[in-house]
Amino acid sequence: MEFRDLKYFQKLVETKNYNRTAEFFGVTQPAISSMVKRLEKEIGTQLIFQAHNHKRMTISPAGLVVYRNAKGLIQKERSIILEAKRANENSFRLGYSELAGKEWLASVITQLNQGHLLASVETHEENSHYLEQHLREGRYDAIVFSRLDNEKLPGIKLTTLETFQYNLVVPSNNPLAKQKEIDLFQIADIPLIMRHKRFLSRTALEQIFTNTNFKPKKKLVVDSIDAT
Q: Partners of 144 in the beta sheet?
């Protein structure tokens, strides 16, 4: 089984189009058809069902198995290439999210400086979701980011720097400011300021809303901590 064929097959499943797959790799359409026949012969079962008019393609259960595994192997190949190139670079790449960076970046850099590593450190700010993805791909050596307690990250070693609970921030003259604990439905009619959906804090808030069947009547969505 050739690695090239797995790349072709992954793209074919995603596009469901022989011509687009061929154009993507700069090969002929018969080359993609031959790839399917080779894989089916090697595996011993049909991977793709194609209508006679070539307008409808159905991926068999076996084809889906090949696709999922091919995708994983291709991602692993990219990771190996990145890690190998990074091994010869004299640098330590640290990724961080906006919130975690404001809270912890200075402390982390101080620790690296004490270990005489600061001269080799590169820092990059990104969304938490992309940080995890790029760490797996080998673009970073370590990341500082926020995550939900119930979020599973297999294959990544985690060190908890700090744990936060949700707090409701209100003006000091608001009656709610005098209460240590409130019922969520007490704020049903109060306009809420919340982060954009791409931020982890908003994801956590939406989970709370879903679990309690709560929907705020008014809300203002902002993009940055400073705006909040």
A: 96
